[in-house]
Amino acid sequence: MLALAQQTFPFNGVADSRDGLYAFTNATIHTSYNETIENATLLIKKGKIEAVGKSVRVPDEAVVLDLKGKHIYPSFIEIYSDYGMPEIKKGGGGDWRKYQVTSNKEGAFSWNEALKTEFQAHQHFKVDTKTAKSLQKIGFGAANVHHNDGISRGTSTLVCLGEERAHKMIVKEKAAHHFSFRKGTSSQSYPGSLMGGIALLRQTYLDGMWYKNHGYKEEVNNSLQAWNDMQDLPQIFEVGNKQEALRAAKVAKEFNKNYILVGKGDEYQRLDEIKATGMPVVVTFNYPKAFDVEDPLDAQEIVLGDLKHWELAPTNAGSLEKIGVEIAFSAFRLEKKADLMANIRKGIKHGLSEETALKALTHTPAKLLKASDKIGSLAKGKIANFIITSGKIFEEKTKIHHNWVLGKPNVLKDLDAVDLAGTYDLKVGKGTYHLKVKGEADKQEFSIIVNDSTTTKVKHSYQNGLLSLSFVPDGKKRMLRLSGAVESKGWAGTGQLGNGRWVKWTAKPKNIEEKKDDSQKEEKKDKKEKDPKIGEVTYPLMAFGWSKKPEQETVLFKNATVWTNESDGILEETDVLIQNGKIAQIGQNLSAGGATEIDAIGKHLTCGIIDEHSHIAISRGVNECTQESTAEVRIGDVVDADDIDIYRQLSGGVTTSQLLHGSCNPIGGQSALIKLRWGYAPEAMKFEGAAGFIKFALGENVKRSRAQGNNRFPDTRMGVEQVYVDYFTRAKEYQKRQRANDPTLRRDLDLETIAEILDSKRFITCHSYVQSEINMLMHVADDFDFKVNTFTHILE
Q1: Most buried of the four, 306, 308, 339, 426, by CB within 10 Å?
Q2: Per-residue confidence at 39, pLDDT binned at 50, 70, 90?
Q3: In sequence order, which residues have a C-beta less than 8 Å from that of residue 729 and are 6 or more positions away?
Q4: What pTM was computed for the model?
C-alpha cells in the first residue's frame, strides 16, 4: 500500500506498485452512524479514503464497482479483544497454604506478579489470519487488543484485521490501559480475595504518585514507571458483574479516574447506580440460553433469578441507552462470535435503537480509544475500512458481501449472488420435475426430488440474470441441459434433451402463495417480537426482590408489649409511633393523623437484633490469608447486596450486622457495618457514620498449625505476639512522619490503618480462645496505649 521507497522490508519477486485506486458507485453510503447518502460514490486510494459523496469525480484509472442496491458502512471496531496476543498459560492463582511473598520475575519490576504494567501489546502482537477472517465475517475491520491477564494488564494496541505484516496492521501503538479484579496467572499468594485485589489496586495508585514525586530518587521501578506512563491513556476496566462495576467506579472516584467499564450484561439490574458513575459501558451480548423445562423436577431446580436474567438480558443495551449511558459493543464473552449480530438484533427488538447500535459499533469505540481521526466513519483521509452489505445492516436477511480493510478487499459473499431458494415446478418439453433450491444465496444447492428418499443433484451456474442447469433424470442415462433467464415470476429458456432434441422449459415457483403466507406470518411475528412483554426488574433480581423501592411511612403500633432495652424496661399495652424512619413516641393511647395503624395486641415489639460478628453478604472471599497483616483490605469494598442471607437474617429479626474479615492472620481486614436494607445497592447498605473496626485473631488459625507446607510467618504463638509488636512499632514511626508532613513519605494503606487504632479512630474485634493469648494482646495494648474493643469466642 505504501510506495516502494517507503517499505522497510525487501520484496522477493515483481512488486505491485499500483495505487489501490477504487471507486464504489451508486451505493447507499452510511458515512457515520447518523448520516446516509443515497446513490453516492466512495473513492479510495492507497488504503485511505479520497472522497465520499454524490458528486465525486471518478479517475479514469480507477477500478469501478457498481454497487446499485448495496449499502456501505464503516467497518465495526472491536474495542475489547485478545486477538493476536500470546497464549495465556494455564495455571497460576497461587496457593494460600504455600506462601510466596514477592514476585519471582527477575528485573526491576513490581513486587506483585498480578501487576503487569510493563506489558505493551504492540510489542507482542502477531497477525492471526484465521481469527481475523472470523471477525471480518461479522463486520469488524479493527480491534483493540490486549493481554487478558492480571489486575493491571499494561497497554493495548489498536490494529486493523488485515493479513499483512503487523507493522502495517498497527493503527495506534498504545491505545488504552487495561484492568480487572482478577489476578490471572500470577502464582503469588497476594491477593487471595477480591478485597485484596481492590487493596492492591488502590496501593498501586498511591505508589505510582509516590514514585513520580519522590520514589524515583530512591529506586528504579520499571513497573511503576510504566504505570505512570499509562495514566493519560483511556482506562478500560473489565468487571465480572454489575456490583464489580460499582466497585471499580468507587476506585475511580477515589483517584479521579474515568474508566470505560466492560460489563457482564447485567447492568440493567443497577441502572441508577451505573448512570451515576458517569462512565461509558462496553456492552457484551452473552445472553443466557433458554432452560430445558421438559422434566418438571428439573424445572423446579431452576433459580428464579436465572430465569429473570434469561428474560431481561436482551433489554440491557436498550435500558442503558434510554438513561443516557454511553455504550460501545463487543463480541467479548460470546462463545460463538458469529452470534453477535443476531443478539444485537434481539436487543433492538427489546428497545435498543438502530442508530445507537451502529454508533456503538463504529463511532463510540473510535471516540473512546481517541482514534476518531483514523476510523469509525467514512471521510476523506481516514483508513479505508468499510463493509459492503446487501441491505440495511440490522435487517435479518442482510448479508455482508465484502469487508475492506486498509483498502484491500476481503470477499465474504459474491456481490451478484441472488437468493433463488424455494421449490419449483420444472417443465422441460413434455416432462415435469420437482426442483428444490436451498441454502444461502452464494452457496445454494439445486436438486430434483424424485420421492421421499431419492434426489438427483443438479449442477448449476448463475451470473447476471442467466441460469444454466444440468442433471441426469431418474431412470435415464443421458444428461439434460438447460439455459435461460431468471425473472421474479419464474424462469424460462431453451434446453437440450439427452437425445439432442431442443425444447422449451419453464420453472414456476410452487410456493409463491406459501411464501406470501409465510411473509405475512413473519410480519406478524416481527411485530409481536418488536414489542415483547417484559417482566419487571426486581431488586435484587431473585426471589423476594421488590420492584418498587420501599418508602418510609408513618406507622402506629397499638397495644404491644414493648421491650425498650432502656431503664423503662418492658411496657405492657403500649403504643409505638414511627415517623421518618425513627421512633417518634412511646406511650399509651397515641394517635397520629394519616398513620397506618397495626393492632399489636398479644405481640411483642423490640429493637432489631444487631449481629456483632457476621460473614454474610461478602463477595469472593471472607479471608485475605496471604500476609500476616492485611489491614489494608476492606470488607466494605466487597459487600454483596444480592446475598439471600440478608433476607433470611431479616426474617430472623436481624437489622444490623458487622461484617468481619476471617481469622486466618493476626491482623485481618477492616469491618463493614451494614443495615440490612434488602434490595439496596452495596454502598446504600452501609451504616452511616459508623466507627471503623478491624479484625484481629489469635490461636490455631493464625499460626496455621494444620496448613500443609505452611511457610507464612508466624508459625508459633510467640511469632503472633511479635507480629503485633512489629506492626505497632512501625505504625508509630509512620504516624510521626505523617504528623510531620514528611513529603518523602510513601502512603502505606496497611500501616495507615494500624495507626488509626493508635489514634482511637479504629477499634479491634479479636477472635480468641485461651487465656494466655488474651493476656498477651492486652499487654501489647498497654505497651502501645490502645484498647481492644471486643474479644470473641472466649473459652477461658
Answers
A1: 426
A2: very high
A3: none
A4: 0.89
